[in-house]
Each structure stands twice: as C-alpha cells, then as structure tokens.
Amino acid sequence: MRRENLSALNQARNQRQACVLITDLGSGEQELLAEDLVQQTAATANPLHEHARQALISDECLRVSHDGRELFIQPFNPPLRLVIIGAVHIAQYLADFAHRCDFEVYIIDPRQAFANNERFPEARLLNAWPDEALRELPPDPRTAVVSLAHDPKLDDPGLGRALNSPAFYIGALGSRKTAAARNQRLAEAGFTPDRVAAIHGPAGLPIGAASPAEIAISILAEVIKTMRHTGRA
User: Fold this and answer.
1) Which of 41, 145, 157, 188 has the fewest CB atoms lying closer than 10 Å?
2) In terms of residue numbers, what domain contains 158?
3) Is 26 exposed, middle or buried (0-12, 13-18, 19+ CB in 10 A)?
4) What is the dihedral of CA 138, 57, 16, 70, to 10 degrees?
5) How do the pLDDT tens digits run along the chain, 233 residues long?
6) What is the number of structural domains in the chain?
7) Same domain, 223 and 120
C-alpha cells in the first residue's frame, strides 16, 4: 500500500470514517475512496462504486472485473460500537457478550459505584450523564445504543441524543407500560411518532428471556439482527 493511502486510511480510522481500497490486480495501482464519495457516485450508476458500496455493506472483500481489469475491493469499516446506558446487572452480561462479538463497548452511568472497571473490565467507562456523554461520543451508523437504566433521568436524555443520530439500533429496557410512558415523554419533548417508533422497546427478541443473562442475549441478538438487515456489517 502506498504511503499516502496508508496515511489516509489511518486518518479515516481515527475519525471512524468508512472507506474502500480498490487495487488493480494487473498493474498494482490503488485508489482509496471515502464512503461519502462511494455513496454519491454509486447513486449515479457508477458500476465500480456500486461494487464498492456493496463491499462496505457486506464488510467483505470483493474481486470484480471492470473495463477489462481485475480489481480487488477491500472495505475498511469502523469497528461496531455498542453504547450501554445504565451500569445495571444486565449490562454486565451484555457488555461481555458484545465484546466477544467484536463490538467496542461503552458504559454510560454517572454513578461510579456501578460503572467501574471491576464490574466492566472490557468496556470503556463514561461516568457522566447520558446526554453529556453522547455529546462527546456521538452515535454514528456503526453504533447501537441500548438504555438499561429504567430511570427517566438517565433513559430520556440518552435516548433523545440517540434519536437525533444515525445509530443503526436504539433500544430501551422496560415493560410495555414503561415504554408507553417513555414514548409519551419523548413526544412531549418534540420527537415525532415515527422517530419515537424507532426505539426497540422493550429491547430484545421475544425469546421468553427471564434471567439477566438471557435478557442480555435477547438484546444482543436483536442488535445483530438489525445490523444485518440494515447493512451495517
């Protein structure tokens, strides 16, 4: 890889920007394309950039023939990220399972007695209020946000930030009654019914989960299902 491409790739990684490296297998020539350029040109029916877009969606390399050339298309997506609001017992299992599935895991909770390295050894901790934390850690299209606090003081500010972001998954714990009350508060805060409906609540696939570990499995399964269906991996 040419030095300028490697430098641009490292910069994109640091900024969590997706890009695609296209290599001509005959000549060795390479071109690095940013995701916004790929999306823009794919929309104008550029066949090569449509292949590049598909590589980003599938997160898999492609070998294609284009204009008499054999090309290797390599996607570089930012790591998947799971942001958990509320350092509760379920969050411990969810953080562990998500880490094993190669998510970068963040725990947001201003209560340091709950959000600490002993309880969350593999996660990055943000001991701040959710709206403040998500201002510093804005969700992007490779981010899932799950609120487990079951406390409006933590749930609502975090979900509000998430709803104003391109996060591919937004979920919240709680009964249907709790979800209805939460949705009403968000509607009163100015969110449209369509936007509020983007929240998966109660979070998790309906598998009859009962224990904290089972609930965590159901939530992560729904995150992964949503990720695959929306083409974020």
Assistant:
1) 188
2) 81-230
3) exposed
4) -170
5) 778 888 888 888 888 888 999 999 999 999 898 887 776 655 566 788 889 988 988 889 999 998 889 999 999 999 999 999 999 999 999 999 999 999 999 999 999 999 999 999 999 999 999 999 999 999 999 999 999 998 999 999 999 999 999 999 999 998 888 889 999 999 999 999 999 999 998 999 999 999 999 999 999 999 999 998 865 54
6) 2
7) yes
